[in-house]
Specification:
Elements (H helix, E strand, L loop, with lengths): L2 E5 L3 H12 L4 E5 L2 H11 L3 E4 L8 H10 L8 E5 L4 H9 L4 E4 L5 H12 L2
Parallel strand pairs: 1-2, 1-3, 3-4, 4-5
Helix pairs in contact: 1-5, 2-3
Length: about 120
């Protein structure tokens, strides 16, 4: 079973995405802040990371920097899922090598879970 770490501080979105991903046979490991999310990434080495950028304790940019510098986890696909719809942020994140950048308001949980499924090739 494929493992996804979902780092998202909004409980409603965390729950709806978890349900949608689990319905596709994907194991979901949840983190509600950046610090615990980064620790889970390093410990669990998931198949994919769903990452919000604005998080308590550690922002998504810092998580991305840490993941990309760590050879044990730097090849894990990352989907950024955020409300930051600004070219500066998009270019910065894409420059860090994310797989996809999704604006939360443009996608529902089913569409996001289908994107995850496509990236994981399942």
């Amino acid at each position: 079973m494929k493992k996804v770490i979902l780092i998202e501080d909004e409980p409603a979105l965390q729950e709806s995405l978890s349900i949608a991903l689990k319905s596709k046979g994907i194991d979901v490991i949840s983190a509600f802040d950046g610090e615990s999310g980064l620790n889970l990434i390093i410990k669990m080495k998931p198949d994919l990371i769903l990452l919000d950028l604005i998080l308590p304790k550690m922002d998504g940019f810092t998580i991305l920097d840490n993941v990309k510098k760590n050879p044990e986890v730097n090849n894990i696909p990352i989907i950024v899922l955020t409300n930051l719809d600004d070219d500066r942020y998009i270019q910065r994140v894409i420059g860090l090598g994310v797989t996809s950048y999704l604006i939360k308001s443009n996608y529902n949980s089913e569409e996001i879970s289908n994107k995850v499924k496509d990236i994981l090739k399942i």
